[in-house]
Amino acid sequence: MTLPPKYGSSYDLPPDRTWSLGSAPWRSMAHLGRPRARVIIDNDFSGDPDDLYQLVHHLLSTTVEIRAIIGSHLREGDPFDPGPDTAANAVAVVKDVFARMGLKDEDLILQGSNLPLTDVQTPQDSPGARAIIAEAMRDDIDSPLYYVAGGGLTDLASAYLLEPRIADKVTVVWIGGPEHDGLAYPPPGGMPVEYNLLIDVTAAQVVFGHSELALWQVPRNVYRQCLVSDAELRLRVAGEGLIGAYLYDEVRKVMDRATAQGRGPGETYALGDSPLVLLTALQSLFEADGTSSLYELRPTPALTSDGAYRAVHGSRSMRVYTWVDTRLMFEDFFLKLREFAQWQRGA
Q1: Which residue from 20, 23, 240, 279 has the highest number of Cβ atoms inside 10 Å of its Cβ?
Q2: 200-255 pLDDT, tens per residue?
Q3: Residue 269 backbone phi and psi in degrees, to 5
Q4: Beta bridge pairs of residue 228
Q5: Which residues are bridge partners to 320 per DSSP?
Q6: What is the C-alpha to C-alpha distance for residues 193 and 177, in angstroms, rounded to an integer?
Q7: Residue 12 domain-assigned (yes or no)
Q8: Which residues, in sequence order, are CB contacts of 234 under 8 Å at separation 6+?
Q9: How do 294-299 and 317-323 pair as beta strands?
Q10: Residue ranges making up the domain that contains 321
C-alpha cells in the first residue's frame, strides 16, 4: 500500500517554496500562458504507485487546469490496500504529495466512493461524483474538459447516473480494459479480468454500454508499453528532492516485494498511468490533439459481467490507443521533475 508516513508535516519547506496551481515559480523562463484544457483526475492512489508519477506530472504541467483530484477505491481485498477505506486512504496519499511539493490547493482533493456500483442503475454518491457533475455542467467556460482515470470508473459512472447530461460535456481518458481482438494479445499469465476493470466491472458497463460519453481508452497492451528502467528511476527520479525520493521509494517497495515473492528481480517498471498526461497536457500546439500517439476508431463495445467485450451494432465510436509516445511522455516528466526539485531546494 502507498502510505503517507508523514502526512500532516510541512516537511520544513520555507514559505517561498510553496505555491498554488496556476503558477509555476520553478520555471526559469516566462510562463507559457493560460491553460487550454481542464482536467479532473480520478485515481486509486493507495494502490500501484504509477498513479503518483501521473499525479506529479500533471501537477507540473501548466497547459491544463486541474479542477479536482478524486481519490477512488480499489477492489475488495486488493493486495496493495486490502482494507475497506481505500478511497479515504487515496485522499490521504494525495494530501501527503501536496505537502511534499509545497502545494496549497488541498480544497481540490475530494473523496470518491469506497464501494463499487451494485447495479447499472444505482449510483454511489460521493463528493467526487458531485465534483464531476459541477465541473461538467458549468456554462461560464468553453475549454475542453477531460476526465482522466487510472483506476476504476465508479465515480464517473455515478456522476453520469446522477446527471446524464454530462455525457456530451466531457471526454473520458481511461487506463484500463483488456486487449481488443485484432489489435493485441493478452500477456502471458495475464489476469482474466484486467486490473482496473476488475475494480468495478459494473461501472465500466455503465460507461461503455449505457452512456454516450466520449471515450479514449488505453487498454492493457498499451499501458504495458510504458516501461522505465530501474536505472532511469535511480538516476533521474530518486535524487530529485523530497518528491523524487518518495516516488522512487514507492516503486522500489513494490519491486522488492515482487522479488521476495519470486517474481523478480526486474530491471523495469510500468508507469502505466502516465498516458493520462501525454494525451491531455502534451497535445500538439496546432490542431491540438495527442498527435504523437496512435489509435484506432472502433464501435464502442458493451462489457460482459466477466470483463469481456461484446460487439454492439451501431454504437458510438471510441478511440482505442494502440501505441503511445513514451519518449515525449517520460522525457517531459524527468525534466519537469528536475526543474521543480532544483527550485524547491533553492538551487
Answers
A1: 279
A2: 999 999 999 999 999 999 999 999 999 999 999 999 999 999 999 999 999 999 99
A3: -140, 140
A4: 269
A5: 217, 296
A6: 8
A7: no
A8: 248
A9: antiparallel
A10: 30-226+270-342
Rounded distance between C-alpha atoms, residue 66 and residue 168, angstroms: 20
The residue whose grid cell reads 508535516 is: 9
Q: Does the residue 56 lie in any domain?
A: yes
pTM for this predicted structure:
0.96
Question: At 231, which amino acid appears?
Answer: A
Could you tell me where the beta strands, DSSP code E, fall in the chain?
Answer: 37-43, 64-71, 109-111, 145-149, 171-175, 214-218, 227-229, 268-270, 294-299, 302-303, 309-310, 317-323
Residue-wise over 199-221: b if at least 16 C-beta within 10 A, else e?
bbbbbbbbbbbebebbbbbbbbb
Question: What pLDDT band is residue 78 in, cutting at 50, 70 and 90?
Answer: very high
Cis peptide before 299 (omega within 30 of 0): no
Any domain includes 235? no
Q: What is the CATH number of the domain that holds 186?
A: 3.90.245.10
Q: How many CB atoms lie within 10 A of CB 346?
A: 8
Q: In what order do the strands lie in the sheet with 317-323?
A: 109-111, 64-71, 37-43, 145-149, 171-175, 214-218, 317-323, 294-299
Domain-located, residue 89: yes
Q: Is the dihedral of CA 86, 196, 218, 254 positive or negative?
A: positive
